[in-house]
Every structure is written in structure tokens, then in C-alpha cells.
Design brief:
The structure is a single chain. It contains 5 helices and 7 strands. By secondary structure, the protein is an alpha+beta fold. It folds into 2 domains: about 55 residues; about 100 residues, PH-domain like (Roll). The strands form 2 sheets. Strands 1-2-3-4 form a 4-stranded antiparallel beta sheet, covered by helices on one side. A 3-stranded antiparallel beta sheet has the order 5-6-7. A hairpin with a 2-residue loop joins strand 6 and strand 7. Helix 1 runs antiparallel to helix 2. The chain is elongated.
Length: about 170
């Protein structure tokens, strides 16, 4: 087993999420200082601040997540309470794969991709903020081709867009 790449989510790509979460919490807490603790507005602000706290926690956990891509499969070592165990997906156990694009602009010019790989050991997900995401997608596509897996048209179209070449079967 030869390691091809060790991947992680770099801080340079995730700091905007941390900044938004921190500003959201601060804004909600500041507004809560001026409302009565038993009011509906206070309750709504508590709920919104909890959403921003969840976003911050999720981002910190992503910063601690590491992937290792090798010739036989991909491993994910999570962090924290939710993903601290090692997950491994061997290429010969790949049972399905989807590649989705989520646009943040109406014209589709900006957004992110998410790959979901199903296998014998469960499901592994990664998004395009991951370093070497393109390499991970290429390896998953190669494994799917070797195993004659049928991929949906949307996944094939997104792969073509990401890799800059026609991916069709």
C-alpha cells in the first residue's frame, strides 16, 4: 500500500466560516443584552446564536479532520466527539459514488462540490475545500470504472466540470 496523498482542510479555506460564525454569535449576544430574558425575541436570538455556535464547532472539527489516500483506498481520521474514529474505504469495496455541485450564485459560477462514497464499511464524504480533492475524485472514478459501477448523469457531468475533460460511460 503506497500513500498517494495526505489531505486536510486548510485554514486558508475555512477562516471565512469561522469569522462568520464568530460574528454571528457576537451579534446575537449583543442584541440579547438589550432584550428581556423572557421575551420571544430573546428566545429567537438564543436559537440563532446556537446555530452559529454549531457552525463554529463544525468548522473546527473539519480543521482537525485528515484524509489519507493510498493505492488501495482512502482513510479519514476525524476529530472531536463526532468523528474521532478512523474510517476506511477500500477501492475494491466501493459500492457507489456521487459527486454533487452546490452553487452559491444563480449563474453557477461559484460553489463547492461534495463527493459521497459508499462502501462495505459505510459512507465517506468530503468536500472541495479539502486539499487534493481533485485527486480523490480521480481515484474514486478510476475505482468505479474498474468495478463497472454505474454513476448518475449529474455525477458524471460534475466530474467532467471538475477535471476539465469528458467523463462519460
Amino acid at each position: 500500500m503506497v500513500v498517494i496523498s495526505r489531505m486536510y482542510y486548510p485554514m486558508a479555506r475555512l477562516w471565512p466560516d469561522l469569522l462568520r460564525a464568530g460574528l454571528g454569535v457576537l451579534f446575537c449576544l449583543a442584541l440579547m443584552l438589550f432584550t428581556a430574558p423572557v421575551s420571544v425575541i430573546f428566545t429567537i436570538l438564543c436559537g440563532v446564536s446556537l446555530i452559529f455556535l454549531w457552525l463554529a464547532l463544525h468548522t473546527v472539527l473539519r480543521l482537525q479532520t485528515k484524509f489519507e489516500l493510498d493505492t488501495e483506498g482512502v482513510s479519514r481520521q476525524g476529530a472531536g466527539w463526532f468523528g474521532g474514529r478512523l474510517r476506511r474505504l477500500n477501492w475494491d469495496g466501493l459500492r457507489g459514488m456521487t459527486l454533487r455541485y452546490y452553487s452559491t450564485r444563480r449563474d453557477g459560477s461559484q460553489g463547492w462540490m461534495t463527493i459521497t462514497m459508499q462502501g462495505d464499511g459505510g459512507t465517506l464524504r468530503a468536500d472541495s475545500d479539502l486539499e487534493d480533492f481533485t485527486l480523490l475524485v480521480e481515484q474514486a472514478l478510476a475505482a468505479a470504472a474498474r468495478l463497472n459501477l454505474t454513476l448518475d448523469d449529474r455525477s458524471l457531468s460534475n466530474a467532467s466540470r471538475l477535471l476539465g475533460r469528458d467523463i462519460s460511460r
